[in-house]
């Protein structure tokens, strides 16, 4: 349900497809977004497009129409949610080597990938005792919510996932594997990796957690907690509304009201988790950054330091 106050549409999108001229798309895409008041970050690479943008419903529709006018992007995967405030301060279109960074140039979802499971099919995989369900997200994302019984690889970066697979999974033992992530993009690469390693029965949740939460009635859910998102909302609940978490901009981990009440929590500088992990010099830099962010927000301006909390999974 969309509340009357939630006037900003948030669109999370991606598409794996060969874009040989991806650099040529940057300027017209950026110009259109800026002209329509759209903010967020989009990544372009040879392997496709990935990103999250926000704006009015009409503005988002125009940007998506522009992208889909390219036949290669006609099947762009996109998921929508709504927010009372704009979750991004600026618009950026970046050129990258990968639209989601695994660090393995030999893995190409355009060449091979696992089988999609719709939200309607997903519960059966979660409930199947013979199916190993793996959360491909990073530890700070898993901490606030995941599917029941899912394996947490305890990675701090998606680059670590291939090593975790090689050390912990065996195609002769793990006959059926199902994986999931926030919007589906990391799972495209993770299933491509497993298929290339000889795993045969490999599934991934189409559209990711966000699509599952949108399509699955709460009384039927296998999801516990909230879903971390890479914008200023920090997390969303089962109704895809802003959740109860903020973020510690020093360590990136989500924090709740109890943690914010701690004497060890200093906005932008430290939280109970990381208060002793940074030097005094680093903390002083964090304080100055937070001061400039606060001043910029008071003026209604963007500040580059604020992007630390809005970094896409790359």
TrEMBL record:
Enzyme class: oxidoreductase
Superkingdom, natural source: Bacteria
Signal peptide boundaries: none
SUPFAM superfamilies assigned to the protein according to its UniProt record, in alphabetical order: Rhodanese/Cell cycle control phosphatase (SSF52821)
PROSITE patterns documented for this protein: RHODANESE_3
UniProt KW Oxidoreductase keyword: yes
One Pfam family here: UPF0176_N
Protein family (similarity comment): Belongs to the TrhO family.
Function: Catalyzes oxygen-dependent 5-hydroxyuridine (ho5U) modification at position 34 in tRNAs.
Protein name: tRNA uridine(34) hydroxylase
Native source species: Candidatus Paraluminiphilus aquimaris
Lineage of the species this protein comes from: Bacteria, Pseudomonadati, Pseudomonadota, Gammaproteobacteria, Cellvibrionales
């Amino acid at each position: 349900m969309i509340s009357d106050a939630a006037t900003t549409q948030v669109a999370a999108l991606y598409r794996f497809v060969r874009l040989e001229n991806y650099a040529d798309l940057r300027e017209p895409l950026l110009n259109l977004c800026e002209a329509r008041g759209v903010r967020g970050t989009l990544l372009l690479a040879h392997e496709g497009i990935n990103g999250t943008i926000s704006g009015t419903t009409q503005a988002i529709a125009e940007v998506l129409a522009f992208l889909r006018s390219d036949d290669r992007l006609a099947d762009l995967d996109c998921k929508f949610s709504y927010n009372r405030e704009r979750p991004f301060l600026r618009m950026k279109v970046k050129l990258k080597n990968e639209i989601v960074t695994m660090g393995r140039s030999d893995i190409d979802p355009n060449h091979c990938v696992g089988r999609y499971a719709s939200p309607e099919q997903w519960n059966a995989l979660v409930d199947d005792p013979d199916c190993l369900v793996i959360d491909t997200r990073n530890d700070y994302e898993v901490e606030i919510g995941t599917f029941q019984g899912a394996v947490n690889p305890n990675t701090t970066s998606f680059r670590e996932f291939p090593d975790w697979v090689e050390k912990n999974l065996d195609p002769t033992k793990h006959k059926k594997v199902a994986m999931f992530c926030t919007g589906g993009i990391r799972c495209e690469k993770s299933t491509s990796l497993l298929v290339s390693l000889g795993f045969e029965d490999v599934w991934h949740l189409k559209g990711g957690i966000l699509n599952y939460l949108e399509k699955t009635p709460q009384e039927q859910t296998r999801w516990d907690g909230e879903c971390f998102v890479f914008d200023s909302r920090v997390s969303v609940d089962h109704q895809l509304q802003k959740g109860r978490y903020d973020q510690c901009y020093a360590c990136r981990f989500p924090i709740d009201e109890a943690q914010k009440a701690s004497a060890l929590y200093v906005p932008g500088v430290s939280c109970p988790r990381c208060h002793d992990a940074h030097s005094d010099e680093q903390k002083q830099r964090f304080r100055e950054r937070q001061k400039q962010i606060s001043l910029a927000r008071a003026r209604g301006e963007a500040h580059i330091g604020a992007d630390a909390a809005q970094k896409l999974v790359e």
